Amino acid sequence: MAKSSEVRNIAIVGTGVIGASWAALYLARGLNVVATDPGPNAEANLRRYIDAAWKDLTALGTSPNGSRDHLRFTLDLKEAVADADLVQENGPERKDFKVKLFADMDAAARKDSIIASSSSGLTMSVMQSACKYPERCVIGHPFNPPHMVPLVEVVAGAKTSPETVERAISFYTSIGKRPIHVRKEVVGHVANRLQAALYREVVYLIEQGVLDVADSDAAVSWGPGLRWGLMGPNMLFHLGGGEGGIQHFMEHLSGPVATWWKDLGTITEFSPEVKQTIVNGVLKEANGRSIAELERERDSMLLELLRTRSKAGEAAHVGADTAAD
Question: Which residues of 197-235 are buried (b: 16+ CB within 10 A; e: fewer)?
């Protein structure tokens, strides 16, 4: 199994938005990338995406040998994965398609390579089921856009070896990502389940007429969302407990929170009416801005947040070193 320090050649299988974003990141980190996708204009669209992402990647900091010149495109899947140290798969979320795709990649890739999937919903146990070497297959699920958002969820399948999980985590860490080890397979992994839980309550509140679409977005992005970009909910509740920290929170504030849980909406599907309400509300909130304009706005703010977090991390590291001295 290739160690993180030995991962130099990446195969990108599927070059939609996620695959293209992964490719941009890997190129910025100085890795060699061979991409494949059977779709029409796939190569042109991939190179266009990478060119657009390169400005933000440069601002975040590319590796000394980071270069778009290290990209090669082929329509041949076998050729793409043949010499890869790590394959990053980004195909359609269809069970039968994924099972066959993984079997094909497994047959063509070197036995010591890692085959990682960006799948947001399917489990690795399903996808690796027809592989001859399933032990090297693992979920490496990013958050969109992968070239900017650090999170990667690493999840083993039933036949994935512990070594593969360790190597995947080590590799993602080495390129500046923030991998988490999801220790049990659950549908949607972790981050999407958290998103879904929050969004279910948002949809319920809109449906009940508690607030409109714009205010529901504001309630998240101008409130707890600002804090969540800095610390997770457990650490924030530790701060919320005052001098007593999380112990005080659990003793005195967990009761009210549990009471709110009991009152949360139990909505299990989108009604046609609430769908249209949300569509109308989002279009009104967008106020004529195109998807491309909104993406630029999002990425610009993400860039500033990442810069701030990076500076804070460097300062904390310096402070720790000083304290150790």
Answer: eeeeebbebbbeeeebbeebbeeeeeeeeeeeeeeeeee
Farthest CA pair distance, the chain: 63
Listed in sequence order, the DSSP H helices in 110-232 are: 124-127, 162-174, 191-207, 213-221, 224-228
Residue 160: phi, psi to the nearest 5?
Answer: -75, 135
User: In this predicted model, what pLDDT tens digit does every residue of 68-87 receive, in sequence order?
Assistant: 999 999 999 999 999 999 99
Residue 144 to residues 19, 27, 167: CA-CA distances in angstroms? 10, 17, 23
pLDDT category, 311, cuts 50, 70, 90? confident
Q: What is the pTM of this model?
A: 0.90
As a whole number of angstroms, the distance between CA 1 and CA 113 comes to: 6
What is the C-alpha radius of gyration for the chain, rounded to an integer number of angstroms? 22
Residue pointed to by tokens 């993400």: 302
